[in-house]
Structures are given as structure tokens and as C-alpha cells.
Amino acid sequence: MAMLVLLLLSSLAVLSPPSEARLYNNYYARKCPSFNKIIQDTITNKQITNPSTAAATLRLFLHDCFVTGCDASTLITSTPFNTAERDADINLSLPGDAFDVVVRAKTQLELTCPGVVSCADILAAATRDLVTMVGGPYYNVGLGRRDGQVSKASLVEGNLPRPTMSMDQIIQIFASRGFSVQEMVALSGAHTIGFSHCKEFISGIYNYSKTEQTDPQYNPRFATGLKSACADYPKNPTLSVFNDIMTPNKFDNLYFQNLPRGLGVLKSDHGLNNDPRTKPFVGLYASNQTEFFQAFTRAMEKLSLYGIKTGRQGEIRRRCDAFN
What we know:
This protein has 324 residues and is mainly alpha-helical. The chain has helices spanning 2-15, 18-21, 35-49, 53-68, 96-112, 119-133, 167-175, 181-188, 202-205, 220-229, 254-258, 267-274, 279-287, 289-303, and strands at 195-197, 240-242. The chain has 14 helices and two strands. Strands 1-2 form a two-stranded antiparallel sheet. Helix 3 runs antiparallel to helix 5, helix 3 crosses helix 6 and helix 8 (181-188) crosses helix 14 (289-303). The longest helix has 17 residues, at 96-112. The relative contact order is 0.16. It is found in: Secreted. It is an enzyme of class 1 (oxidoreductase). GO terms for molecular function: heme binding; lactoperoxidase activity; metal ion binding.
């Protein structure tokens, strides 16, 4: 009988995701009891001063998780001997406010409980709290991640969805990480806050074809507004526009309501509304914010566990932008 129980326990250990089993909501309760307060104070001060921080941090978290897992590898600064993830072409537009809020929290945590809290946990918790702060749903974030020890720009290309990709390509990137089409659409709802640079959609509003100057998927008046906003793009490549022109600083479902009206900014936004695999979910989330929030919650909880390092798989960095 004892042998049978042992075999059953061994089987369960194999079947259960080891990384998920090692994350705990109260991981820092004894080691760093002020963890939650420091995170809350840091993000509150930063968001009040720089209202784009929530969107910036959410985007940084998504970019970080999708390459080598949620291990803060995107925070690493390049050296003469290594070009890090943050210097890959697609990551050059990641806003500085996202990096800054993590560094600020890490500085305070190192003063309070040195060598205890990982940058990966700071980024995961700060993202959740910032999303909640701007009206989004609260979701569970288990803690106990270690920081990754690899960060290479060469690993980024092809592992992050680009707004110019076809829906087939984007769905494949998510599928290769175990995410369904519905989860992909829910995570795309992150565009309800934040902005996109003109360079990411400029081809859709200028010289679309010989017969049409603008991609017909855009609302004509909206396209005119985008052209005006991006008029100086050749001289100023940092120009950008809000992804959700209705409530750009509030996490809600208006992003999905905008898509059928031709008010999506990116090619991938239009793709979500036109592809038969994704359109039903766009309609569902546009008509029911509760459904969107529930789906986003499940998808973010799942994403926050992707490729995490625990135990001896990683380290607790002394500073977030460099390996120990």
C-alpha cells in the first residue's frame, strides 16, 4: 500500500507544473513583509507623475515573458560583450517609465530587505497593481520567481508579435507558447491603454495602393486624424498616438468596441476584427466588459507563469539591469 501511494505521489509530481507549484502569494511574508507596501507606494507615485507608466509596464511585462519567460531578462543592459534583449529592434520603443518604476521599487526593496526580492517578481507584481490602478481587473500573481541569467537580442526576433504580422503569424506565436486564440485576443486587449508609434502603422495611412491612399479598413475621418498626428513623422520618429482614442488612460473594453468602427490603429487591430477565428471574441468582449476582464485575468495569470525560473535556475539580482 505504501509503495502504491509513493508511486501515485511521484506521478502527480511529474504531471504538475513544477514552476507553478513553487510560487506562493505570501512568498515574502517573512523574508520581506513590506514587499506589497513598497510596490504600491512606488507605482502610485510613478503613475501619478507619469500617467503612461501603467501601459508602459504592461507592455514591458508582455515583451519580457514572451522571449525567455517571465525572468526580467529584458531589463538587462547591453555590454561591449553582449547585446541584450532591450536593444533588439522591436524593444527599442519600450518606454523608459516601465524600466524606471521597476528600478525604483528594487532600490527601496534592497534598502529594506537586501538580496531577497527578484526583479522578475517586482515586474510581475507592479504590472498587476498598475493594471488594477487604471481600472483593470485584479488577478493573482504568485511570487518566488528568480531572475534569468541570459539576455540576448538575437533571441527576440520571431518570438514577439509585430503589428505588421499576419493573423496567422501572430496566432502561431501565441500557440507555440500554449495560448489559445481566445487567450490571444484577450491579451491583445492590453491595447486599451498605451500608445503606438507612427512607424508601426504609417504604411496603412499613406500610399496604401495606387488607387487608394488609405487602407479601407480605417474609418476615413480617423485616418485623416492619424495623418495629421503623424505628419512630422519623417523628422520626428518618436511621434505616437493612443491605441484607444476614446479612453486612452482607462483599462476597459472600448478598444474592442472601436475595432468594428474602423478605429483600430494597427494592422493587427484590424486583423482581429476581420479574421473569422478572432472576430467572435472581439464581438464578445466589445459587448461584455465582464467577459473581457475574466478572460484577461485568466490569460495574465497563465502568462505570469510562462518560462519562470525558480530555485537554482536563476538568481536574485543586486540590480535589475545587470547580472550578478
